[in-house]
Design brief:
- By secondary structure, the chain is α/β, with parallel strands linked by helices.
- The chain has three domains: about 180 residues, no CATH class; about 120 residues, Immunoglobulin-like, CATH 2.60.40; about 230 residues, Aminopeptidase (3-Layer(aba) Sandwich), CATH 3.40.630.40.
- The protein contains 15 helices and 17 strands.
- Strands 1-10-11-3-2-6 form a six-stranded mixed sheet, with helices on one face. The chain has a six-stranded mixed sheet with strand order 13-12-14-17-15-16, with helices on both faces.
- Strand 10 and strand 11 form a beta hairpin.
- Helix 5 runs parallel beside helix 7 and helix 6 packs parallel to helix 8.
- The radius of gyration is 26 Å and the shape is globular.
Length: about 600
């Protein structure tokens, strides 16, 4: 599965001109290679000849590169040879072509002095290795190391910052796949060592800015947050009504955590409802304690959970213990933060969010110049063992929405300059409560969850958009859609309605109302953009409207959020359209156009 990165297209070329040098290359080889690759002008490349001829051409350029040594000319020749092998890999998917291309890019990046196109070679190598491994985590690692080596680059011809910007955008897209805890610390050390080794070879001083912060996100490092005063009076706690509690204590059975440098989430699974109190505490130097958040859960006892958990990012560790006929959970924080705590029913979970971002006030009408929009989180629903809805011929929701997200993400980056996070980049299951957490920790300005609709009779068709709105009653149809997306389709209608009421109460407690205006504007723009994008080729497309329902995935999002049901996969006609690349591309275009309109203040 290709990685979605805000970076150069596979056939693109670095913008810097090449140093002609004095190395002799076999006659016409360079010119022949250039014609087989995408020229800087964007003109079409020549058709590839036989595989044997392309391999031979790449080998001759590689030999010439070796003779030139680690010079700008040698770097150029290795880069072009690598491009040829990469193009073969993209056509035939022969592993040896990909490995050879990666090695040639590594040679191209090893030039002294290090020219601008060495950075592009490092970027392409990192992206290629990620794609070959079919792992977003591998892609993040390789691109991070390329970024750290790039900090040592000596400016060659062209604009040195252009490649660095591409690397930063690519890492922003993959921020959700950054390692946590000790693996992250190890990667930081490895990046520093790689940069220092290159610095020694170049004889240049390593810039002080190479100390990593939150890579790719443009966010400040934890050390930069150390002097920020702890937010006061902004902790929010939404606890269940005592009438929901049973007569006996419940057990804490599971603890999950997710975190980045600027925010994190802890999810505690219990056997049943419980009430709780929570808050944040400032440093206590006498006790050797830094910033902390705590959660006291009443009438609860410990189950099979660890007493101390090393986390990562802003949540350094979690400590759990028994206290006063209940359980106390303490989060040791790496920076001042405030917390929001709420619950999710069926099964009962307590969600504790910590963030360095203060809640914004009510999002009223946009200013005439439009809205500031830097980051968008796209959430392809389901994944892994959760296929989502399945169409009459077997088309799976999880595959469709991931493909739409893969089409929309690079367009948002390239057309709008918006950094984009995918809550999942591969066929991987991500828990519902972690999806909004990833968007929050990313400090996204918008959150879009992508899905395919379904009904039992397979008759309904068209697009539909949902939002959280605590002031409005959810209807039965919307409740059934929410139950399916919440992985609770087996519940009775009365239980689904009860969950909707609880979610509305939780949303009120979290002050979701301040975001409702933005969420509804986003939903309206999605609806209109989808009808416009699809209408030219599929004039019968209709909208099922904008509705309100209690979707777990939207609860706790700190930004305007909407759930986009792209079409009814249960309808034979909609399923047939969803199976086509054209229909999915039009849906991706609708997402991009809606975000563009939202930013413009429409």
């Amino acid at each position: 599965m290709p990685l979605v990165c805000a970076c150069q297209a596979p056939g693109g070329r670095p913008p810097a001109p090449w140093d002609a040098g004095t190395v002799q290359v076999p006659p016409n080889d360079e010119a022949r290679a250039e014609r087989l690759l995408v020229p800087a002008s964007g003109a079409a490349a020549d058709p590839l000849p036989s595989r044997a001829e392309v391999v031979a051409l790449s080998d001759r350029l590689s030999i010439a590169s070796s003779k030139a040594g680690p010079t700008p000319k040698g770097s150029r020749l290795a880069y072009v040879a690598g491009e040829l092998r990469e193009r073969l890999w993209r056509i035939d998917r022969v592993a040896s072509d990909g490995r050879e291309a990666a090695e040639l890019y590594a040679a191209a990046a090893d030039a002294v002095p290090r020219p601008e196109h060495a950075c592009w070679a490092d970027l392409r190598r990192g992206r290629l290795l990620g794609e070959m491994s079919r792992s977003a985590a591998v892609g993040y690692r390789e691109l991070y190391l390329a970024q750290e080596r790039g900090r040592t680059s000596v400016a060659g011809p062209g604009r040195p910052e252009s490649c660095a910007a591409e690397l930063g955008g690519a890492l922003s897209v993959l921020e959700a796949f950054r390692p946590r805890g000790e693996p992250w610390a190890e990667l930081v050390r490895e990046g520093r060592e790689a940069a220092e080794a290159l610095q020694r070879r170049l004889g240049a001083a390593l810039p002080a800015s190479s100390a990593p912060a939150s890579p790719g996100s443009g966010a400040p490092a934890l050390s930069a947050l150390a002097d920020i005063p702890a937010p006061a009076g902004r902790d929010v706690v939404v606890s269940p009504d005592p009438s929901m509690l049973g007569p006996s204590p419940v057990r804490l059975t599971r603890i999950q955590h997710y975190g980045t440098d600027l925010g994190g989430r802890v999810v505690l699974s219990l056997e049943g409802p419980a009430t709780y109190t929570a808050g944040t505490l400032g440093p206590n130097p006498d006790a050797g304690r830094g910033h902390r958040a705590y959660l006291d859960i009443a009438k609860t006892r410990l189950g099979p959970v660890a007493k101390e958990i090393e986390a990562g990012g802003i949540i350094e560790r979690l400590r759990v213990g028994s206290r006063d006929e209940g359980v106390r959970v303490v989060l040791d924080l790496a920076a001042p933060a405030f917390c929001r705590v709420f619950y999710l029913p069926q099964p009962f979970r307590i969600v504790l969010d910590v963030t360095t971002r203060m809640s914004e006030g009510s999002l009223g009408p946009p200013p005439p110049a439009g809205r500031t929009l830097r980051r968008v989180a796209l959430d392809p629903g389901h994944g892994g063992a959760d296929a989502g809805a399945v169409g009459p011929t077997g088309l799976r929701e999880k595959d469709v929405v991931l493909d739409i997200a893969h089409r929309a993400a690079p367009a948002l980056a390239h057309e709008l300059g918006v950094e984009t996070l995918l809550t999942r980049d591969t066929d991987l299951y991500v828990p519902l409560e972690e999806r909004a957490a990833r968007a929050n920790a990313y400090h996204a300005d918008l959150f879009l969850s992508l899905h395919c609709n379904a009904t039992d009779d397979g008759v309904a068709d068209g697009v539909q958009v949902f939002v959280l709105d605590p002031t409005r009653e959810a209807d039965a149809v919307a409740g059934r859609v929410a139950a399916r997306e919440n992985a609770l389709p087996h519940l009775r209608l009365s239980d689904q309605e009860s969950i909707d009421r609880q979610i509305a109460t939780i949303a009120t407690g979290l002050d979701v109302g301040r975001l409702t205006g933005g969420s509804r504007r986003l939903a309206g723009l999605l609806e209109r953009a989808a009808l416009a994008s699809l209408g030219t080729a599929y004039p019968a497309t209709r909208s099922q409207g904008i509705r309100t329902a209690g979707f777990f995935v939207l609860v706790g999002a700190e930004m305007p959020a909407a759930l986009f049901e792209t079409a009814f996969i249960s309808n034979p006609g909609d399923e047939a359209r969803l199976a086509t690349a054209e229909f999915r591309q039009r849906l991706a275009d609708a997402v991009v156009n809606a975000v563009r309109a939202y930013r413009q203040g429409l």
